[in-house]
């Protein structure tokens, strides 16, 4: 029973900290671009090597 007196407020505090961290990330734009990272992997930024002339 005495363990619950410690664990319940601790769990509530950790949940509140998680909620505050989520709203902080939301306010700072962490969730603005959902498709950017998914599409960025498909973009090939490397230039192809020049073809060597055949002799």
From TrEMBL:
It comes from the Bacteria. Keywords: Membrane, Transmembrane, Transmembrane helix. The chain crosses the membrane at residues 6-26. InterPro entries: Cyt_oxidase_maturation_cbb3. Pfam families: FixS (PF03597). This is Cbb3-type cytochrome oxidase assembly protein CcoS. It comes from Novosphingobium aerophilum.
């Amino acid at each position: 029973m005495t363990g619950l007196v410690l664990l319940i407020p601790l769990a509530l505090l950790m949940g509140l900290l998680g909620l505050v961290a989520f709203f902080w990330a939301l306010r700072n734009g962490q969730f603005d671009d959902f498709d950017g990272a998914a599409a960025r992997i498909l973009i090939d930024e490397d230039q192809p090597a020049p073809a060597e002339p055949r002799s």
